[in-house]
Design a protein that fits this description.
InterPro entries: K_chnl_dom (IPR013099). With 309 residues, this protein is an all-alpha fold.
Length: 309
Protein backbone atom coordinates (compact mmCIF):
# COMPACT_ATOMS: atom_id res chain seq x y z
CA UNK A 1 0.00 0.00 0.00
CA UNK A 2 1.25 3.47 -0.78
CA UNK A 3 2.24 5.59 2.18
CA UNK A 4 0.87 9.10 2.30
CA UNK A 5 2.73 11.98 3.83
CA UNK A 6 1.67 13.02 7.29
CA UNK A 7 0.61 16.49 6.23
CA UNK A 8 -1.46 15.36 3.24
CA UNK A 9 -4.53 14.29 5.16
CA UNK A 10 -6.81 17.05 3.84
CA UNK A 11 -7.76 15.60 0.46
CA UNK A 12 -8.33 11.99 1.65
CA UNK A 13 -10.36 13.26 4.59
CA UNK A 14 -12.56 15.42 2.35
CA UNK A 15 -12.99 12.54 -0.11
CA UNK A 16 -14.08 10.09 2.58
CA UNK A 17 -16.35 12.66 4.18
CA UNK A 18 -17.85 13.40 0.77
CA UNK A 19 -18.69 9.70 0.43
CA UNK A 20 -20.11 9.73 3.96
CA UNK A 21 -22.26 12.78 3.18
CA UNK A 22 -23.65 11.07 0.07
CA UNK A 23 -24.43 7.90 2.04
CA UNK A 24 -25.98 9.94 4.87
CA UNK A 25 -28.26 11.71 2.40
CA UNK A 26 -29.17 8.44 0.71
CA UNK A 27 -30.08 6.46 3.83
CA UNK A 28 -32.00 9.30 5.45
CA UNK A 29 -35.46 8.25 4.29
CA UNK A 30 -36.45 8.01 7.95
CA UNK A 31 -35.79 11.71 8.51
CA UNK A 32 -32.95 14.19 8.89
CA UNK A 33 -32.09 12.90 12.38
CA UNK A 34 -30.66 9.63 11.10
CA UNK A 35 -28.74 11.37 8.30
CA UNK A 36 -27.13 13.68 10.83
CA UNK A 37 -26.28 10.70 13.04
CA UNK A 38 -24.59 8.90 10.14
CA UNK A 39 -22.65 12.02 9.17
CA UNK A 40 -21.56 12.65 12.76
CA UNK A 41 -20.42 9.04 13.14
CA UNK A 42 -18.44 9.31 9.91
CA UNK A 43 -16.78 12.54 11.02
CA UNK A 44 -15.86 11.07 14.40
CA UNK A 45 -14.66 7.78 12.94
CA UNK A 46 -12.57 9.21 10.14
CA UNK A 47 -11.17 11.89 12.44
CA UNK A 48 -9.98 9.26 14.91
CA UNK A 49 -8.50 7.07 12.19
CA UNK A 50 -6.69 9.97 10.51
CA UNK A 51 -5.34 11.04 13.88
CA UNK A 52 -4.10 7.59 14.87
CA UNK A 53 -2.73 6.55 11.48
CA UNK A 54 -1.50 9.72 9.73
CA UNK A 55 0.88 7.76 7.49
CA UNK A 56 -1.69 5.22 6.36
CA UNK A 57 -4.18 7.51 4.69
CA UNK A 58 -5.01 5.05 1.93
CA UNK A 59 -6.57 3.02 4.73
CA UNK A 60 -9.28 5.70 4.74
CA UNK A 61 -10.55 4.37 1.41
CA UNK A 62 -11.15 0.93 2.87
CA UNK A 63 -12.69 2.48 5.98
CA UNK A 64 -14.99 4.60 3.80
CA UNK A 65 -16.18 1.55 1.87
CA UNK A 66 -16.72 -0.36 5.10
CA UNK A 67 -18.64 2.50 6.69
CA UNK A 68 -20.85 2.95 3.62
CA UNK A 69 -21.62 -0.78 3.58
CA UNK A 70 -22.45 -0.78 7.29
CA UNK A 71 -24.75 2.26 6.98
CA UNK A 72 -26.61 0.73 4.04
CA UNK A 73 -27.08 -2.68 5.69
CA UNK A 74 -28.10 -1.10 9.00
CA UNK A 75 -30.73 1.01 7.24
CA UNK A 76 -32.22 -1.90 5.31
CA UNK A 77 -32.17 -4.45 8.15
CA UNK A 78 -32.94 -2.03 10.96
CA UNK A 79 -35.94 -0.44 9.27
CA UNK A 80 -37.30 -3.82 8.20
CA UNK A 81 -36.83 -5.64 11.51
CA UNK A 82 -37.70 -2.74 13.85
CA UNK A 83 -40.10 -0.46 11.93
CA UNK A 84 -41.54 1.19 15.06
CA UNK A 85 -38.25 1.88 16.85
CA UNK A 86 -37.83 5.48 17.97
CA UNK A 87 -35.36 7.84 16.31
CA UNK A 88 -33.32 7.94 19.49
CA UNK A 89 -33.02 4.15 19.59
CA UNK A 90 -32.14 3.98 15.91
CA UNK A 91 -29.39 6.56 16.35
CA UNK A 92 -28.02 4.85 19.46
CA UNK A 93 -28.10 1.44 17.79
CA UNK A 94 -26.22 2.81 14.79
CA UNK A 95 -23.54 4.45 16.93
CA UNK A 96 -22.87 1.51 19.27
CA UNK A 97 -20.83 -0.66 16.83
CA UNK A 98 -19.01 2.40 15.49
CA UNK A 99 -17.98 3.51 18.98
CA UNK A 100 -17.01 -0.04 19.97
CA UNK A 101 -14.79 -0.32 16.89
CA UNK A 102 -13.13 3.05 17.49
CA UNK A 103 -12.49 2.35 21.18
CA UNK A 104 -10.94 -0.99 20.27
CA UNK A 105 -8.77 0.70 17.64
CA UNK A 106 -7.61 3.31 20.15
CA UNK A 107 -6.82 0.65 22.73
CA UNK A 108 -4.80 -1.45 20.27
CA UNK A 109 -3.46 1.36 18.09
CA UNK A 110 0.20 0.38 18.44
CA UNK A 111 -0.40 -3.15 17.16
CA UNK A 112 -2.72 -1.95 14.41
CA UNK A 113 -0.39 0.78 13.14
CA UNK A 114 1.92 -1.75 11.47
CA UNK A 115 -1.03 -3.29 9.62
CA UNK A 116 -2.43 0.04 8.47
CA UNK A 117 0.86 1.58 7.37
CA UNK A 118 2.55 -1.45 5.87
CA UNK A 119 -0.22 -3.89 5.09
CA UNK A 120 -0.10 -7.64 5.58
CA UNK A 121 -0.58 -10.40 3.08
CA UNK A 122 -3.84 -12.25 3.85
CA UNK A 123 -3.16 -15.73 5.21
CA UNK A 124 -5.42 -18.71 5.86
CA UNK A 125 -5.78 -17.92 9.56
CA UNK A 126 -6.87 -14.35 8.84
CA UNK A 127 -9.38 -15.51 6.25
CA UNK A 128 -10.84 -18.08 8.64
CA UNK A 129 -11.16 -15.55 11.44
CA UNK A 130 -12.75 -12.82 9.33
CA UNK A 131 -15.02 -15.46 7.79
CA UNK A 132 -16.27 -16.45 11.25
CA UNK A 133 -16.85 -12.83 12.20
CA UNK A 134 -18.79 -12.10 9.02
CA UNK A 135 -20.80 -15.29 9.49
CA UNK A 136 -21.77 -14.29 13.04
CA UNK A 137 -22.77 -10.83 11.87
CA UNK A 138 -24.83 -12.37 9.08
CA UNK A 139 -26.57 -14.68 11.57
CA UNK A 140 -27.47 -11.69 13.74
CA UNK A 141 -28.92 -9.94 10.69
CA UNK A 142 -30.90 -13.03 9.68
CA UNK A 143 -32.19 -13.44 13.23
CA UNK A 144 -33.28 -9.80 13.31
CA UNK A 145 -35.28 -10.28 10.12
CA UNK A 146 -36.62 -13.73 11.00
CA UNK A 147 -37.75 -13.22 14.60
CA UNK A 148 -41.11 -11.43 15.00
CA UNK A 149 -39.56 -8.34 16.60
CA UNK A 150 -41.63 -6.11 14.31
CA UNK A 151 -44.76 -7.30 16.17
CA UNK A 152 -43.48 -5.97 19.48
CA UNK A 153 -44.39 -2.60 20.88
CA UNK A 154 -42.17 0.42 20.18
CA UNK A 155 -40.43 0.19 23.57
CA UNK A 156 -39.57 -3.47 23.12
CA UNK A 157 -38.37 -2.80 19.59
CA UNK A 158 -36.07 -0.09 20.96
CA UNK A 159 -34.62 -2.51 23.50
CA UNK A 160 -34.21 -5.33 20.96
CA UNK A 161 -32.54 -3.07 18.43
CA UNK A 162 -30.07 -1.61 20.92
CA UNK A 163 -29.39 -5.08 22.34
CA UNK A 164 -28.59 -6.47 18.91
CA UNK A 165 -26.31 -3.54 18.16
CA UNK A 166 -24.55 -4.06 21.50
CA UNK A 167 -23.83 -7.67 20.51
CA UNK A 168 -22.51 -6.50 17.14
CA UNK A 169 -20.38 -3.90 18.89
CA UNK A 170 -18.90 -6.59 21.14
CA UNK A 171 -18.03 -8.78 18.17
CA UNK A 172 -16.55 -5.78 16.36
CA UNK A 173 -14.34 -4.86 19.30
CA UNK A 174 -13.20 -8.46 19.75
CA UNK A 175 -12.30 -8.85 16.07
CA UNK A 176 -10.92 -5.35 15.52
CA UNK A 177 -7.56 -6.62 14.23
CA UNK A 178 -9.16 -8.80 11.58
CA UNK A 179 -11.60 -6.07 10.58
CA UNK A 180 -8.77 -3.55 10.21
CA UNK A 181 -6.86 -6.04 8.05
CA UNK A 182 -9.99 -6.50 5.94
CA UNK A 183 -10.31 -2.73 5.44
CA UNK A 184 -6.63 -2.55 4.50
CA UNK A 185 -7.12 -5.40 2.00
CA UNK A 186 -10.03 -3.51 0.45
CA UNK A 187 -7.89 -0.37 0.15
CA UNK A 188 -5.08 -2.34 -1.49
CA UNK A 189 -7.51 -3.92 -3.93
CA UNK A 190 -8.95 -0.53 -4.91
CA UNK A 191 -5.42 0.83 -5.32
CA UNK A 192 -4.57 -2.05 -7.65
CA UNK A 193 -7.75 -1.49 -9.66
CA UNK A 194 -6.91 2.18 -9.94
CA UNK A 195 -3.53 1.28 -11.42
CA UNK A 196 -5.13 -1.02 -13.96
CA UNK A 197 -7.79 1.58 -14.83
CA UNK A 198 -5.10 3.88 -16.22
CA UNK A 199 -4.40 1.36 -18.96
CA UNK A 200 -8.10 1.28 -19.84
CA UNK A 201 -8.54 5.01 -20.40
CA UNK A 202 -8.12 4.82 -24.18
CA UNK A 203 -10.42 1.78 -24.72
CA UNK A 204 -13.04 3.30 -22.42
CA UNK A 205 -12.90 6.64 -24.25
CA UNK A 206 -13.20 4.90 -27.61
CA UNK A 207 -16.11 2.79 -26.38
CA UNK A 208 -17.92 5.84 -24.98
CA UNK A 209 -17.41 7.76 -28.21
CA UNK A 210 -18.77 4.93 -30.37
CA UNK A 211 -21.65 4.36 -27.95
CA UNK A 212 -22.60 8.05 -28.21
CA UNK A 213 -22.27 8.03 -32.00
CA UNK A 214 -24.47 4.95 -32.49
CA UNK A 215 -27.05 6.23 -30.01
CA UNK A 216 -27.33 9.63 -31.68
CA UNK A 217 -27.38 8.21 -35.22
CA UNK A 218 -30.22 5.82 -34.44
CA UNK A 219 -32.11 8.50 -32.52
CA UNK A 220 -31.98 10.64 -35.65
CA UNK A 221 -33.10 7.70 -37.79
CA UNK A 222 -36.05 7.04 -35.48
CA UNK A 223 -36.96 10.72 -35.54
CA UNK A 224 -36.68 10.97 -39.34
CA UNK A 225 -38.77 7.84 -39.84
CA UNK A 226 -41.38 9.25 -37.46
CA UNK A 227 -41.40 12.57 -39.29
CA UNK A 228 -41.88 10.93 -42.69
CA UNK A 229 -44.70 8.68 -41.52
CA UNK A 230 -48.34 9.70 -41.67
CA UNK A 231 -49.10 7.63 -38.58
CA UNK A 232 -47.27 7.30 -35.27
CA UNK A 233 -44.65 4.56 -35.31
CA UNK A 234 -44.37 4.31 -31.53
CA UNK A 235 -46.70 3.85 -28.60
CA UNK A 236 -46.60 4.53 -24.87
CA UNK A 237 -48.77 3.67 -21.88
CA UNK A 238 -51.37 6.19 -23.07
CA UNK A 239 -51.46 4.93 -26.66
CA UNK A 240 -49.81 6.01 -29.94
CA UNK A 241 -47.34 8.91 -29.57
CA UNK A 242 -45.45 11.20 -31.87
CA UNK A 243 -41.75 10.90 -31.16
CA UNK A 244 -39.79 14.09 -30.56
CA UNK A 245 -36.01 14.05 -30.61
CA UNK A 246 -35.71 13.86 -26.82
CA UNK A 247 -37.98 10.82 -26.76
CA UNK A 248 -36.12 9.33 -29.73
CA UNK A 249 -32.79 9.78 -27.95
CA UNK A 250 -34.19 8.21 -24.79
CA UNK A 251 -35.57 5.27 -26.75
CA UNK A 252 -32.24 4.86 -28.54
CA UNK A 253 -30.30 4.70 -25.25
CA UNK A 254 -32.79 2.22 -23.82
CA UNK A 255 -32.60 0.09 -26.95
CA UNK A 256 -28.82 -0.07 -27.36
CA UNK A 257 -28.39 -0.89 -23.68
CA UNK A 258 -31.24 -3.48 -23.84
CA UNK A 259 -32.76 -2.01 -20.66
CA UNK A 260 -36.32 -2.02 -21.94
CA UNK A 261 -38.17 0.38 -19.62
CA UNK A 262 -41.39 -0.20 -21.53
CA UNK A 263 -42.38 3.48 -21.59
CA UNK A 264 -41.91 3.70 -25.39
CA UNK A 265 -42.06 0.84 -27.89
CA UNK A 266 -42.22 0.59 -31.71
CA UNK A 267 -45.48 -0.53 -33.32
CA UNK A 268 -44.32 -0.36 -36.95
CA UNK A 269 -42.42 -3.23 -38.54
CA UNK A 270 -39.84 -0.87 -40.02
CA UNK A 271 -39.19 0.79 -36.64
CA UNK A 272 -38.92 -2.63 -34.99
CA UNK A 273 -36.37 -3.73 -37.58
CA UNK A 274 -34.40 -0.52 -37.03
CA UNK A 275 -34.44 -1.12 -33.28
CA UNK A 276 -33.21 -4.69 -33.83
CA UNK A 277 -30.32 -3.38 -35.92
CA UNK A 278 -29.40 -0.98 -33.11
CA UNK A 279 -29.43 -3.82 -30.59
CA UNK A 280 -27.08 -5.79 -32.85
CA UNK A 281 -24.82 -2.74 -33.18
CA UNK A 282 -24.75 -2.44 -29.40
CA UNK A 283 -23.74 -6.09 -29.01
CA UNK A 284 -20.96 -5.68 -31.58
CA UNK A 285 -19.78 -2.57 -29.73
CA UNK A 286 -19.73 -4.53 -26.47
CA UNK A 287 -17.65 -7.22 -28.16
CA UNK A 288 -15.28 -4.55 -29.45
CA UNK A 289 -14.85 -3.10 -25.97
CA UNK A 290 -14.17 -6.54 -24.48
CA UNK A 291 -11.62 -7.26 -27.21
CA UNK A 292 -9.78 -3.98 -26.67
CA UNK A 293 -9.60 -4.51 -22.90
CA UNK A 294 -8.32 -8.08 -23.21
CA UNK A 295 -5.85 -7.06 -25.91
CA UNK A 296 -4.35 -4.39 -23.64
CA UNK A 297 -4.20 -6.91 -20.81
CA UNK A 298 -2.40 -9.47 -22.99
CA UNK A 299 -0.04 -6.76 -24.20
CA UNK A 300 0.82 -5.82 -20.60
CA UNK A 301 1.50 -9.47 -19.78
CA UNK A 302 3.80 -9.87 -22.77
CA UNK A 303 5.69 -6.71 -21.86
CA UNK A 304 6.11 -8.00 -18.30
CA UNK A 305 7.43 -11.34 -19.57
CA UNK A 306 9.85 -9.56 -21.93
CA UNK A 307 11.20 -7.46 -19.04
CA UNK A 308 11.65 -10.55 -16.89
CA UNK A 309 13.42 -12.29 -19.76
Amino acid sequence: MKIAAEGSWGRPFLATMGLAALVAAGVGDGGAWFSLTVLAAAGLGFGVLFRLFPRGLDFALGAGIGFATYAALFTVIGRSAFPDASDTAVGAAFLLPVLAFLLAVIRRRNRLRRIVEGGETPDELHLRRIGRVLLLLALIAVASLSLPANRLGPGWQDAAMIGGSAVIGGLTARAVRELVRLLVDMAQLMDALNGRAKALVVPIAAYAALFSLITIVFACLFRVAEGLSRHPLFSGPQGPIRLGFRDALHFSVVTISTVGYGDIWPTDDGARLLAAVEVLAGQILLLFGFYEITRDRLSDNRNGEDKEG
